[in-house]
User: Which sequence fits this backbone?
């Protein structure tokens, strides 16, 4: 759970660009079509003891398969949604969901920031405006990286503004 | 020329797929949908403490899952549960 200090003010949340979900969606769509490619290769000598219409059984199993893929997509989405950076006027909180029951949290005080850089590499990231943001720190964790962040130039500006205000005060 | 017969490899699955088996699979599916909804609720609410976004996500999750479950139930009925 995100707990802010008493005099701490929430400012911004950075998340990954939704396009990063696309590979997972494509894989799930391939899995959704998979039964139609596998069925022709099932050997004819397998005798299936089915007490009913096999077509209806196949329909049921296929819908069950789609339901499982939908559940997998829900979990992929949760994993995506809970990966975030939260910027407050005092800290940068890095939450990384590495699986359903595996979460890493790192906290960086704003005044520990030494350098902020962004990296937008490739045609698609350039056109869709997403990339990596690297924050060099003076702490034990030498570098904070958020991959595939939405609008990294704006994120860098916000971080720099917060840092400037903090240092000036 | 020698030929290999596939006769020994012909096998049958020991379990007959009856309506009862399909009904168990359907219950399993319902259970998985419920379990996933619980996990989503737990993660979203324990992390964000936002009842609104958690409720929205659960409504979407249950809404789409319900479509699949209704279709699966219809297919199961056609099969003969």
Assistant:
């Amino acid at each position: 759970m995100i707990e802010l200090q008493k005099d701490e003010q929430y400012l911004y949340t950075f998340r990954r660009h939704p396009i990063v979900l696309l590979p997972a969606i494509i894989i799930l769509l391939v899995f959704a079509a998979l039964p139609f490619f596998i069925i022709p290769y099932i050997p004819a000598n397998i005798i299936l003891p089915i007490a009913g219409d096999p077509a209806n059984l196949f329909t049921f199993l296929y819908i069950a398969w789609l339901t499982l893929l939908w559940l997998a997509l829900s979990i992929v989405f949760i994993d995506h949604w809970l990966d975030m950076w939260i910027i407050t006027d005092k800290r940068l909180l890095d939450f990384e969901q590495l699986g359903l029951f595996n979460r890493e949290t790192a906290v960086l005080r704003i005044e520990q920031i030494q350098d902020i850089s962004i990296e937008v590499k490739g045609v698609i990231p350039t056109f869709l405006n997403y990339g990596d943001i690297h924050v060099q720190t003076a702490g034990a964790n030498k570098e904070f990286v958020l991959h595939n962040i939405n609008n990294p130039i704006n994120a860098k500006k916000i971080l720099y503004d917060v840092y400037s205000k903090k240092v000036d005060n | 020329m020698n030929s290999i017969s596939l006769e020994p490899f012909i096998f049958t699955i020991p379990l007959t797929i009856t309506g009862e088996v399909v009904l168990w699979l359907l219950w399993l599916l319902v259970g998985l949908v419920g379990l996933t909804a619980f996990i989503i609720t737990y993660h979203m609410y324990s992390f964000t403490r936002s009842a609104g976004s958690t409720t929205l996500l659960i409504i979407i999750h249950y809404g789409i899952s319900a479509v699949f479950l209704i279709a699966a139930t219809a297919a199961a009925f056609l099969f003969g549960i």
